[in-house]
Write a structure and sequence with these properties.
five-stranded parallel beta sheet, mainly alpha, 43 helices, Rossmann fold, 65% helix
Length: 924
């Protein structure tokens, strides 16, 4: 094998993003504040690109700010983490770029060095002087003569004599020494070390003045605490920078980069830092910039870039390592996405570089939960790392790789979390997950479904996550069935759907896509998709389940259970699929499947009457949508008789049948009969499901609709607003049920003359329906009709007509021409032409609407009477009161019978009749 030469001087890689950080720096350099000193601090996790950012900022100074003298110090260098050596290194860097004289500092440092290590001779190279400073060699020689031990005193008089024989400008500097040489000689080494920053600052200011344009960068600030954690006060370790160095060099701009926030610590020690420091996070790199970086580094394959960007979690260091891997792999073969799986060990090592073993063990424990609060933290530490003090929690959560959430919980940066999980003992990790699984499961054990809160939702999600990491697969399946049931019953479909989806993917891998057990769970997922309004997905799942069951007809679902797939199972899934087709307005498909299912169960002698009642109930719904109300009511009544006898009058299944009966009464214009049935349904559902269940919202919305039709707008608004609030809280934002409640709320606003409010909610309903069901679904036609009505009220007849026509075309394609909804749209178009006084156009359309309504609804229906009124108005306006009066009298008779004498439609009809009679009398 041939080893390749290491490329130490590879091409500098592109710098992307960080525009905000750069803009902050430019403003910082252009407009330094009025304080004597100021600092800009950038913080972020390991590998986030702090050093790269500093290099970019330095490049900006080189290109745009030539007058600024800058130097950079990196505390990653151990030599820079000590006060005295840091100052020597800083001195050397400054002197390479400027003519600053450090006379006093050099003398003080030499004395310090001799005091701290008297047996080590001072090196002249440590104190480089320009030619005129040759006197300093004499001082060093004088100090080096004292090499016999620490008890021999420093020759102070000789040093003073050497200084007195130097040039005037040098003597002047020493004359301004903040502390006398005699005093320095009497001090211990550690005492001199404390004042070295002040003496350094004095030299710096003497040479450059207090208004110098200087920027000093300090990188890897967290390294200053390396090897000192838990030893002494945390704030003591950088005190020499914070209190002695920066404040004593006026006019200098400091740019510091580190992992953890420091401003609060500095302000706690010195309030002035509140004004003198600005602190900014370096956020995760957005995906688009990660993509850009990889492309410009030559990673050509899109699938590889996607894998790397996703795995990086926004950390540039990971991207850099991945480019290294890409280049290495490219030398021997064509790179593939699988070459970039797993977290790189270098990332893990970088994250934990400055942490001790006890901290790493603590973070290993905390990498298991998705988040934790103080209580959970203490439980985990007491159980798995008792040597770590729980009282260090406040210090721990200050780390930049720990994020504080809104609810006072905390979480690890995802890349660090993944690396911690990957590089720890798997048995140890599994024990932590099992502990957390039991912790969260206990929060929801035997829970009353009507008492479920957001905290319980979180517990369910967390318990499942940890169950996957700690339980055997069979145990996981049992847990899913047991613990999800109350959430399903309570209507928390958004919460449980992803859990089912994830478990079914695991099950598919375990048993295969044609297994009966897989089909049974897939059916559960289809239920959830249907409940969430994702009907196309539900239909696809039901069809898949149907194929699985048909293929496995006669086989047992579980080997140890006496349950097999039979004709009944086929009927059940066919009925499920039919319900989905009902939801999307494909009534003929639904009816065909229901008839198939009913035929299967009716041929079984021992079939449960309750299941036959279920199929009758569902067929009744289909006939109702098809406008065949008489047949629908017959099937509903048959289903209700069985359900009440078998289940009792307050069962939830009884409530479903009752609600369908109420809808049929409503659509038959029997509003007085519908209202108490709706109220009975509401009472059952609130009692059984609680006041905030989605089915409660559905009933409230229906109640609101019937109240509109009965001219009770106040109650309608109350019911519909409550329904909307529940639906938006409990359902996905694009659930079709939200659109339905919005349509009913909009109708309430329309009858309350709040046309702008009505238009707004109708538009929202349209947007949801188009997103959920597509642009040509029948539900779109319903909403378009509602919007067109509002445009009519706002006298925008051209727009209204356009929407009516669009609604009519969609409805004709779904329902044919003989359906009540077709009659409704035609009636509304006729009314529009009446409003625009185009009576010749209005008459044939209203007549067509009347024929459809009479045939499908009956000649005593309120909707039939509404169209009669429109025709009566047309005849009246063209002077044919002989035709107009009988029609208006017939409509008044229907309104009085169905709505009562105080309804607004009855009053309108009475006014028209009286007006026509008066006109007819005059004409006679």
């Amino acid at each position: 094998m041939t080893l390749r030469q290491t490329d130490y001087f590879r091409k500098e890689r592109v710098f992307v993003d960080r525009e905000t950080c750069i803009e902050i720096f430019k403003n910082f350099i252009k407009n330094p504040n009025n304080q004597d000193y100021n600092a800009l601090f950038y913080y972020g996790i390991a590998g986030i690109g702090k050093s790269k950012l500093q290099h970019e900022l330095q490049s900006i100074l080189n290109s745009d700010y030539h007058e600024v003298l800058w130097v950079s110090m990196d505390l990653e260098n151990e030599y820079h983490r000590n006060v005295s050596t840091f100052l020597v290194a800083l001195r050397d860097k400054i002197q390479k770029k400027s003519n600053v004289k450090f006379y006093k500092f050099n003398l003080a440092h030499a004395l310090f060095s001799k005091k701290s290590r008297p047996e080590v001779p001072l090196k002249k190279e440590t104190y480089p002087m320009i030619k005129e400073d040759g006197f300093f060699y004499d001082i060093i020689n004088a100090l080096n003569e004292n090499i016999l031990g620490s008890f021999i005193s420093i020759p102070v008089k000789r040093i003073v004599n050497i200084i007195n024989h130097t040039p005037e400008n040098v003597r002047r500097h020493f004359g301004e020494l903040p502390i006398s040489i005699e005093k320095l000689e009497s001090m211990e080494a550690h005492e001199i070390e404390k004042i070295l920053p002040c003496i350094f600052a004095a030299d710096f200011t003497d040479s450059l003045g207090s208004n110098s344009r200087v920027c000093i960068f300090i990188d890897t600030y967290e390294a200053i605490w390396k090897d000192w954690r838990r030893i002494g006060s945390f704030s003591e370790k950088d005190k020499w920078i914070r209190k002695c160095l920066i404040p004593n060099i006026p006019g200098v701009s400091w740019v510091i980069c580190g992992r953890e926030q420091i401003k609060s610590l500095w302000v706690e020690d010195e309030k002035d830092w509140e004004m003198c420091m600005k602190e900014y996070p370096i956020e995760d790199l957005p995906e688009k910039y990660g993509e850009q970086f990889l492309k410009e580094c030559g990673v050509e394959e899109k699938d590889i870039r996607d894998v790397i960007v996703k795995a990086s979690e926004g950390v540039p260091y990971y991207l850099n390592l991945s480019v290294d891997t890409y280049e290495q792999v490219s030398r021997r073969k064509k790179p593939e996405a699988k070459d970039f799986a797993g977290t790189k060990k270098e990332v893990f090592e970088k994250f934990v570089k400055y942490l001790d073993k006890n901290e790493i063990r603590t973070l290993n424990v905390l990498s298991a939960p998705n988040s934790w609060d103080r209580n959970l933290f203490e439980l985990l530490i007491k159980k798995f790392n008792p040597t770590y003090s729980i009282y260090e929690f406040p210090d721990l959560v200050k780390y930049s790789f720990i994020k504080k959430d809104m609810d006072e919980s905390f979480s690890l940066h995802q890349l660090m979390r993944k690396s911690l999980q990957e590089y720890q003992d798997p048995i140890y990790r599994k024990d932590v997950h099992l502990f957390l699984h039991n912790y969260y499961s206990n929060k929801i054990k035997d829970i009353d479904f009507m008492s479920i809160t957001q905290e319980h939702e979180t517990a369910l999600i967390e318990a499942y996550y940890h169950a996957k990491e700690s339980l055997k697969f069979a145990e996981l399946g049992i847990w899913v069935i047991k613990y999800i049931e109350p959430f399903d019953k309570a209507g928390y479909w958004k919460t449980i759907d992803p859990i089912y989806e994830d478990f079914i993917e695991l099950l598919k891998e375990k048993v295969g896509p044609e297994n009966i057990y897989f089909g049974a769970f897939l059916r559960r997922l289809a239920f959830l998709r249907e409940d969430r309004g994702r009907y196309n997905e539900a239909i696809a799942y039901y069809q898949q389940v149907l194929k699985i069951f048909e293929k496995n007809l006669g086989k047992k679902i579980l080997e140890n259970k006496d349950v097999a797939v039979d004709d009944h199972s086929i009927a059940m899934v066919s009925n499920d699929l039919a319900n989905c087709y009902l939801d999307i307005g494909e009534y003929e498909k639904a009816l065909t499947l229901q008839q198939k299912a009913l035929k299967i169960v009716q041929n079984k002698v021992d079939e449960d009457p309750l299941y036959i009642a279920l199929l009758q109930q569902n067929m009744a719904t289909t006939y109702q949508y098809l406008g065949q109300y008489k047949r629908a009511m017959e099937l509903c009544q048959a289903a209700l008789n069985v359900r009440e006898a078998r289940l009792g009058e307050e069962d939830l299944e009884v409530a479903i049948t009752l609600e369908n009966m109420a809808i049929i009464h409503q659509q038959s214009s029997n509003y007085k009969e519908a209202l108490p049935i709706y109220q009975r349904v509401l009472n059952i559902r609130e009692k059984k499901l609680g006041p905030k269940h989605p089915l409660v919202a559905q009933t409230l919305s229906n109640l609101g609709t019937v109240c509109i039709l009965m001219d009770n707008i106040d109650d309608a608004l109350k019911y519909n607003q409550r329904a909307q609030k529940i639906a938006e809280e409990k359902l996905d934002k694009n659930h079709i049920s939200i659109a339905n409640t919005l349509n009913n709320l909009g109708a309430t606003y329309r009858y309350a003359y709040r046309y702008d409010d009505a238009l707004e909610v109708f538009q929202q309903a349209l947007q949801i329906t188009e997103h959920s069901l597509g642009p040509d679904n029948l539900n779109i036609a319903y909403t378009l009709n509602n919007i067109a009505e509002i445009y009519c009220k706002k006298k925008n007849y051209e727009k209204a007509l356009e929407l009516y026509q669009k609604a009519l075309n969609i409805a004709k394609n779904s329902l044919g021409m003989e359906h009540p909804f077709i009659g409704l749209i035609l009636n509304n178009i006729g009314r529009l032409y009446i409003d625009t006084r185009e009576f010749e156009k209005a008459h044939p359309i209203c007549q067509q609407a009347l024929n459809i309504r009479g045939k499908t609804l009956g000649t005593d229906h309120v909707d039939f009477a509404i169209t009669l009124m429109n025709l009566a108005y047309i005849y009246g306006c063209v002077g044919r009161s002989d035709y107009s009066l009988p029609l208006s009298e017939r409509s008044l008779q229907i309104f009085e019978q169905k709505l009562g004498p105080d309804h607004i439609r009855t009053k309108e009809a009475k006014l028209l009749v009286d007006t026509l009679k008066e006109l007819y009398t005059k004409d006679s």
